[in-house]
């Protein structure tokens, strides 16, 4: 797919880019506001829809927020050596936060910021360029419903986890005279009860909350790209299936129908090629993040096991303290795997849609015989009808193309 590489970048425009608005573009523009607030600016081709005064003030503040989050992550990791005399539950929390905070900040947030231009280009191709010729409204509605469902599950599980941890530890601090310990930092010591120590713990909790919310924006970017890829494969299926309608037109002669079909079919192949380019770019851009994602959330589940297995008192208290983290870990894994699995299914259905696009109705210039031989004998390329050369190449490579859409780590997990 080298023909699509090394093209001019799709830049963020100072004036709005003119394109046909769809439900998907409106959804992306709403998400773009959330991404901007999460310190992920300029992931869409148009400027974020905030006032100029706010954007001018907030953009410089992003650097300060990045510095605060780096200090927070460093403090969480340093607590592995500074904090002693912790309970088993606190040790599990310290290990989970101390390992996950720097991974999320570096391999999620900072990595995706490095690929900002590439992500913006892929999103623009999927949402605008590939929808010029055909946009299946049913596939678009299904994509938006999936987005609302997945985001609702993931965001609610993360926020509920944060709120429950805060309320639970606040309850312990009030009823048992314990210190307010949520996310364990390098300082203060868990037994220190001075006023600065107490205020620091409250500040750490809200910084931790902001850290989680800010990284939700990164997750949303990746999830949106995966959903748009799934929608595009559905869109391609309906495009090729609709080609059969050409032969139902009564005002065209058979030869005109065949010529129109060939033009449309070739255009569909170009769209398929561009879709595969988007898949390749998605794999390249998110490769580090996907690998980190599996290690992170599986590691989080493993870190919870010692607290559960070593606790002889299997009470409701123990369940309440661990259930939010388990739910967040499982939903976090599924948040990327759900759309990736759907994409693999839709990509596997695309060859059937292409093959049933209506070539069997072509016979005026022996096209039907040529296309039929292509599907049964892909080893011979000589003496083909040049107008159907794209379909020959396509049918020969359909199986390989569909395998390309499964990301490396998911192909291992789903075997």
UniProtKB/TrEMBL annotation:
One of its GO terms (molecular function) is odorant binding. One of its GO terms (cellular component) is membrane. It comes from the Eukaryota. One of its GO terms (biological process) is signal transduction. Its main location: membrane. It is a multi-pass membrane protein. It is found in: Membrane. It holds the Pfam family 7tm_6. Keywords: Membrane, Olfaction, Receptor, Sensory transduction, Transducer, Transmembrane, Transmembrane helix. InterPro entries: 7tm6_olfct_rcpt. The chain crosses the membrane at residues 63-83, 95-115, 153-174, 202-229. This is Odorant receptor.
